[in-house]
Amino acid sequence: MFLLLLLLLLLLLLLQYGQGVFAPGIPMGDEGMYKCGHNLLRAHAKTYQLYHKVPQAKLDNVTFADAARGKVGIALNIEYLEPLTEAKEDVAAANYGLEKNLGWFADPLFFGDYPASLKSCAKDVLPSFTAEESKLLKGSLDFLGINFYTGKFAKGSATDKCSVETREQDVNGKDIGPLAESSWLRVVPWSFYKLLKYVQSRYDPKQIIITENGVSAPKEDSMSVQQAIRDDFRVNYYKGYLDYLCKAISEGVKVNTYFAWSFMDNFEWREGYSQRFGINHVDFDSPELTRTTKDSGKFLSKHFFRVGRGGGVGARRPGGRKPTKETPKAAKPAKQQ
């Protein structure tokens, strides 16, 4: 039994309490964003302790002994950052960008405190943990969930160590990958591999669950059902990303469960029904909301999932896709100070 305590989308804190463009729509800038994240972490740590440590705890008439068989984790949304060039400021920007986003939440959960780089760059708005809170936070997860979709280039500044400019084109103006329907999402399979290697090297989690991975196919919402279910764009996305996922696993990354996003077309935040991520098509104009399996769903069923038999990475069918052999060199993660 799994208990996924918090599905935490890092970007949403910026949009909800930083810029205030997502519900609850409170524009408090960086101070509000970091305060919200701080309280989420404190709540997570206390709930983890309640679930695992408090004797005779009862959850909806389930005894502690029964409940303790579950696992508590957190899901973090992250984009991988690749240095734009080999210049030291670009390498530093990529490392800081990962610490600023992923490390903002992962470092307290694994090490008990925020990354030193974040404490330096956000010292005026980043709250601090007490010694008791730090002790409670460290190790307060049984698995790490990762929502992953894309990667970007990072450009730094020779004069500002806290500057991280993200780009979707390299120095020659070449796109990092094909653009999906979502303006923020480009298809960058190798970035999945690099992110997983980074996570394993920096945190060495007990278990990694890919809680979301998928893509919105371009113009799919304006297609007929028969056109939309022939979703080669999405099939190729999954082929590339799952190749690199399997490669990472073969090299010791502890992923054992994978969830594609999403099972069917759904309501995508402010975009409503206009961006389709599903491996099953939903006809929103039909009174019955008719579902039709897309080619991507058939691909995953044939090559990756064992439908009705547990599923997940460990259940990949023999003869499924094999890892790609050639991979760009992974960035070396900075060590926690």
Automatic annotation (TrEMBL):
State the UniProt keywords alphabetically. Answer: Glycosidase, Hydrolase, Signal
**Presence of the UniProt keyword Isomerase in the record:** no
Where in this protein does the record put region Disordered? 309-337
So where's the catalytic machinery, residue-wise?
A: E212 (nucleophile)
Signal peptide range? 1-20
> EC number(s)?
3.2.1.21
Any one GO molecular-function label of the UniProt entry? beta-glucosidase activity
Highest taxon listed in the record's lineage: Eukaryota
For biological process, the GO terms are: carbohydrate metabolic process
User: Which InterPro entries does the record associate with it?
Assistant: GH, Glyco_hydro_1, Glyco_hydro_1_AS
The family classification in the record reads: Belongs to the glycosyl hydrolase 1 family.
The protein's name is beta-glucosidase
Taxonomic source organism: Tetradesmus obliquus (Green alga)
